[in-house]
Specification:
9-stranded mixed beta sheet, 14 helices, 21 strands, Endonuclease, Chain A, globular, alpha+beta
Amino acid sequence: MRHVVIAVERSIEPHTSQVLPSSLNWLYNVAPSFGVNGDQISILQKPEDFYHTLLEQCKNAKRRIYIASLYLGTGNLEKRLVDTLSARLNELGERLQVNILLDANRGSRGLENSRTMLTPLIKSYPHCRVSLFHTPALRGPLRFLLPPRYNELIGLQHIKLYLFDDSVIVSGANLSHDYFTNRQDRYFFITCPELADFYYGLLQRISSISLVLNKNDELTPNSSQYHPFNSPKHIYISEAKKQVWGYYQTEFEKISVQNHSKSDVDTIIFPLLELPPIGVHQDSTVTERILECAASDSVVNLTTGYFNLTDSYRCIILGKSQAKFNILVAHPSANGFLKAAGPAGGIPSAYTSLATSFLSWTNRLGQTDRVSVLEYQRPGWTFHAKGLWQSFCNNQIPFLTVIGSSNFGVRSVNRDLESQVVIVTENEKLKSSLLEEQKRLYDLGTPFTLEVASLPERKPPFWVRTLMWFFKKFL
């Protein structure tokens, strides 16, 4: 049974709940909350907007930069990003703190990788810190038996947060050419000093339990007492939970909610964490409750590039929730693993098989009028956007969104480090931007039905169907 960790509940004064519908007031009791004006949130629509915003923020940062991603690519666009960081460091020196958090296995893949991209930065600016999280689940003989790429199946640092001074980009996008050009994701640019402070501290704690990259391209532990794979697993997990989840709960207790009553506050932000390697399942628990609380007069639009819902999510959508659901997934042609070498090339078909299974459940339970699945297709593009929007049936304009790194799948709940934010708003401009963002994605969706799934070209190969029973827990 999954061990669920969630923040200790606390009592909130009534005036702080004005922005939220009464059905969502419980959010104040399970996560830190940050009251802002909706104009402090900008929604970036395109990969190139994301890239140019990263460059611009690196050029103009004055005090601190914290980049958290799965990995950094090795192409020209990525090199330009590193060069921009280097140029800004050359201007400001130690007045600018630069920290980068990546995944140890994904960041070490290949002869040229994230580590080789960043080692020159460390050599030139020793005060810069590059940390690489290594899951404690990959240890012992398994570390040596699983080759690069396949060792990433066990667990990853999957959080995507890009922090510059008092602003944060919350996204699901990584730092590589595709994510800067033709891989569709979501990107929220939020200016809020308190939220930036919170995330800066959080990323510092995750970095403190990670390996550190030195100028010789070596990974060393912060402490030999809680090495992610050399020290006893229970010792590492205990220390990691104390560092990261302990920080979260401390911040939850001390962050004031009084600013929610300010006259210009019309939007509340709740940051959430999912840290399966150390037994924290807060994000999935809160997401489940949001889905379950969605009333019969509401619509939930949910997107994911990798559709492999947990049993709990599926049971809530098909059995407990009364809302209407429109689920947007990647068409095989828009899956990032399309034409990948080796067994990975079968992953798009595997996701088709999982979506077909979900549709079969939908049909069996008589929910086809309430739950639909669409596939994102855009020639030359892949689809990596994930999150959800909730609106009421009578106007379709979202008042709530969830955005971050989670794919709402088995991996996100059982293996990888994830972070999302729940945003609830009364700001009409922000709500219109949410609707525009949602519409841009769904306008490229085509219905996926059991009839479509039965077409010869859509049937997964026999070997994919044979291995699905084992590999679905890694997808």
